[in-house]
From TrEMBL:
Belongs to the major facilitator superfamily. It comes from Cebus imitator. It comes from the Eukaryota. One of its GO terms (molecular function) is transmembrane transporter activity. GO terms for cellular component: membrane. The gene is MFSD4A. This is Major facilitator superfamily domain-containing protein 4A. Keywords: Membrane, Transmembrane, Transmembrane helix. It is a multi-pass membrane protein. Pfam families: MFS_1.
Length: 514
């Protein structure tokens, strides 16, 4: 009861900065999920092929990693942190406003690279500032922080859906699309090969000419609406700067009088802070340094090979699962509107929202589940669930209902894979390795690489290959996880952690997941 009163008192004292940090993560979520449903419209706008526009995803994810490292430069003082958040959130609104004017895929990739840098800064700075404010009580506030990521990712496809084009504006006789149109799915590639070769593309009849310079698409309005919706976020950061007297036009801040409740909190004797209560990203043990410093540590010398094998296999599992999350969110809309499903563009636009909605729901549900289930068991269930879901989608690839049910199922299974794997790996290494650093890097690189790889295969082999890639990557994730269990069994000094401690670590890992 006293703990709840202390936490609520801290929230009352820091209400404005807390709401501000939550809001900037809404910007993060808004920017992370809009590319998937608007992919075809952006291809029309830039007159690009699927492999070409996949570089847009690559540039965003690459610069997100760079932005996360860059954000560490601005975490030293409150003024630097707030100005970084203001600039980043304003840049996201600017990106949304500029996207409709990007008629070349290289320009669009450059704009999304800017968005990735802004998202990376937000990710690092907002997490760090909340932990500095609430310290060992930060877990619950970080849970809400990352809930806003899911909320923004859920909202952006819903905003875009009414403005998506119903017809495919891409020219079916273009050189870039000749291969993909002749390989729409595996059955047509086998049965219709001679028919396609007998009729040259130039002699076929199509619904109409493609629009010039993106004409005929109304998706620009969706981006401008998102820019306006996001605009209050930098304004909120600016208000916080003003409140903290950090604007150059404001005089130095004078100390304010505290209320009776706040004064009572201030006069309480300080409690000794338990470092293990902090989320993994912010604990001071060696495992959470940057990748270069972590790999250069002298205490890694003489470590058994199983120590390095656990790091590598765990990172490969997240390389696959987080890569699947990014690739599925990016291309499920494109898969749905292609044959054999041929779902309407408006209906298909709900799939990314459904996916991110169940990811958000899964993150909330995993908190109480983690107190009753070991992280290793949760990872096993998640990975097996991903493989089974993709197999079901592959078997019933002509059924739209199974596509929606499978999308929701994938969101649930993928939602808690990262925090469960992080908790399990740190537990296996007894918090002495570089698990957090290596796993975060592996997950980020997986999102970046698999999106581009799936886009290239989708273009070359047709829509059916989208599900085949999901099955292959899911099976690889399961294989790497079995190897991880094997190396864990061989690793000396297996930890024996009480269930309650595991659940605390799981909650902290869940709060760290984006």
């Amino acid at each position: 009861m006293g703990c709840d009163g202390r936490v609520s008192g801290l929230l009352r004292r820091n209400l404005q900065p807390t709401l501000t940090y939550w809001s900037v993560f809404f910007s993060f979520g808004l920017c992370i999920a809009f590319l998937g449903p608007t992919l075809l419209d952006l291809r029309c706008q830039t007159h690009s092929s699927l492999p070409q526009i996949s570089w847009v995803f690559f540039s965003q994810q690459l610069c997100l990693l760079l932005g996360s490292a860059l954000g560490g430069v601005f975490k030293r003082t409150l003024a630097q942190s707030l100005w970084a958040l203001f600039t980043s959130s304003l840049a996201i609104s600017l990106v949304f406003a500029v996207i409709p004017f990007c008629r070349d895929v290289k320009v669009l990739a450059s704009v999304m690279a800017l968005a990735g840098l802004a998202m990376g800064c937000i990710d690092t700075v907002a997490n760090m500032q909340l932990v500095r404010m609430y310290q060992k009580d930060s877990a619950v506030f970080l849970q809400v922080l990352h809930f806003f990521v899911g909320f923004g990712a859920l909202l952006s496809p819903l905003i875009a859906d009414p403005f998506l084009s119903e017809a495919n504006c891409l020219p079916a006789n273009s050189t870039a699309n000749a291969t993909s149109r002749s390989h729409l799915f595996h059955v047509s590639r086998v049965l219709g090969q001679h028919h396609v070769e007998a009729k040259p593309w130039s002699n076929q009849t199509f619904p109409g000419p493609p629009p010039k310079d993106g004409a005929g698409t109304r998706v620009s309005y969706a981006f401008w609406i998102m820019a306006l919706i996001n605009l209050p976020v930098p304004m909120a950061v600016l208000m916080l700067l003003s409140k903290e007297r950090l604007l150059t036009c404001c005089p130095q801040r004078r100390p304010l009088l505290l209320s009776a409740d706040e004064l009572a909190l201030e006069t309480q004797p300080p409690e000794k802070e338990d470092p293990s209560s902090l989320p993994p990203k912010f604990q001071s043990h060696p495992g959470h340094e940057d990748l270069f410093s972590c790999c250069q540590r002298k205490n890694l010398r003489g470590a058994p090979y199983s120590f390095f094998a656990i790091h590598i296999t765990a990172a490969l599992v997240l390389f696959m699962t987080d890569g699947l999350t990014g690739a599925y969110s990016a291309f499920v809309y494109s898969y749905a509107v292609e044959k054999p499903l041929s779902v309407g563009h408006k209906v298909a636009g709900y799939l990314p929202s459904l996916f991110w909605g169940f990811i958000t729901l899964g993150r909330l549900l995993s908190i109480p589940i983690s107190s009753r289930m070991k992280p290793a068991t949760m990872v096993f269930i998640n990975v097996v669930g991903v493989v089974v879901t993709f197999l079901v989608l592959l078997i019933f690839s002509y059924n739209v209902v199974f596509l929606f049910v499978g999308t929701a199922s994938l969101g649930l299974f993928l939602s808690s894979t990262f925090p469960s794997m992080l908790a399990y790996t740190e537990d296996s290494l007894q918090y002495k390795g570089c698990a957090t650093t290596v796993l975060v890097t592996g997950a980020g690189v997986g999102e970046m690489v698999l999106q581009m790889l799936v886009g290239s295969i989708f273009q070359a082999q047709g829509s059916y290959s989208f599900l085949v890639c999901g099955v292959i990557f899911g099976c690889l994730a399961f294989t790497f996880y079995i190897l991880l269990l094997f190396f864990h069994r061989m690793h000396p000094g297996l930890p024996s952690v009480p269930t309650q401690d595991r659940s605390i670590g799981m909650e902290n890992a869940e709060s760290y997941q984006r």
